[in-house]
Amino acid sequence: MTESPHVIIADLSDHVDSTVTLEGWLQGKRSGGKVIFLHLRDGTGECQCVVEAGAPTVFEAAGTLTQESSLRISGAIRADDRAPGGFEMSVTALEVVHIAEEYPIARKAHGVDFLMSHRHLWLRSRRPGQILRIRHTMIKACRDFFDDRGFTLIDTPILTPGAGEDTQTLFPVDYFGEEAFLAQTGQLYLESACMALRKVYCFGPTFRAEKSKTRRHLTEFWMLEPEIAFAELDDVVDLAEDMMCHIVARVLERHRADLENLGRELAPLEKVTAPFPRITYSDAVDQLRSPETLIFLEEELVRDRARLAQWMAELKTLEQQLEEARKPWQQEKIRAQMSDLTEVIGDLERDVENRPQHIQLAQSFEWGKDLGGSDETIISRQYERPVFVTDYPREAKAFYMKVSPHDSRVVRNVDLLAPEGYGEIIGGSQREDDADMLEERIKAFGLDPADYGWYIDLRRYGSVPHGGFGLGIERTLSWICGLKHVRETIPFPRLMGRMYP
Ligand code: 4AD
Ligand code: MG
Q: Are 220 and 335 part of one and the same domain?
């Protein structure tokens, strides 16, 4: 059977009406008396393979195949619009590579916890595959963006002697008897490199011991960080805006069908074009406390409560249908629908329950605090595009941010809030470039300047205005794909309470 050329499903359009061999896994199987339909997946696509009883040995072998068995299969390729993927194989030979044991992930709906515990297998399903391909495109788009603009990639260390961000979220490691930490950011090292190479970026895993279980927090996440010399805050914001438009355009260009399959509405992504609104933190605070915002939020709550009531009624209808359903496949289908609906109802219920408190928090927001997740959600919901928020109170942000020359209560920083309630996806700033001021800030944050000798040095030898930002890959992807939680955007998520697999 090895005579016919081995090809991949993605290339089948080049092989119509010829005989080829495919290698893959059995996604599913359907028998119709004298014919068996094998649904093959090879990692590049899906193809329906038709085995007829006229070829007894092949037919018998096909009968033994269980879900996820691996196989080599040969036959003639026909173009067929009705077939998933657009092609069909008339099978003439079949070689079993391995018969799979009973596969734990059946087509019936599983809860997220179960799926996460089977993440090593779940990756084979359509949805994770689509998300991971979009992740790949997005990361490539980021790298292309910087590579095409003369940036040099700098790999920054993962084992670090001190805090780069908030000391509360450090992961300590025993480094030959001394305490070291997993990197929270590559930024401080990039600042050194940008004084050497002017425009630099790093891309790597970063670690935060986040003790919060939210849909936005991972303990290990990937961050893309550019840093540029001779730059002020506006230059940093312009760069972030250009990059974000580039990424979204690239994903839209290559993954329309994937996004639609994920249930992602495309219209909000099409609107991601420059210029994005730019407001200050003080504007944001006024907005949170404004009567217009209160009306907006209360109307939204009324709409969501109505939606919840409608879904509950739909669930009741499904319950009745389940009682009346006779065939097992009908029951299974209804149960899957019920389980999906129950999940979205649960999410909305929790959300609606917390909303009055979030509204209260927003209305009584005091200038000086950092914006919380619910505040970001409220602000970003009021814009159709991502919105830049700049100039936060100095106490609320990191020690390295430059105190504003216009208002010493604030720093020259920027957060980019994604629309549709997704919140912060980028954090950046102009950096403090004065050695004395930086030392003072380090002390004010309860850190020891002695630990930052090399970092303060950068301000002693030809200090220049400089800045950059960090883009969280998972949060950005979660927004682009319209997901409810960041855990699906990374192959093997690390969360508080999850390390397996
Ligand atoms: O705002 P952050 O903490 O900024 C920095 O780390 C700077 N040193 C970056 C820089 O200026 N070079 O983090 C940047 C981004 C956030 O906007 C968010 O997208 C993501 O990293 N992020 C997280 N993503 C998932 N889980 C977490 N626990 C995250 N913490 C931050
Ligand atoms: Mg931040």
A: no
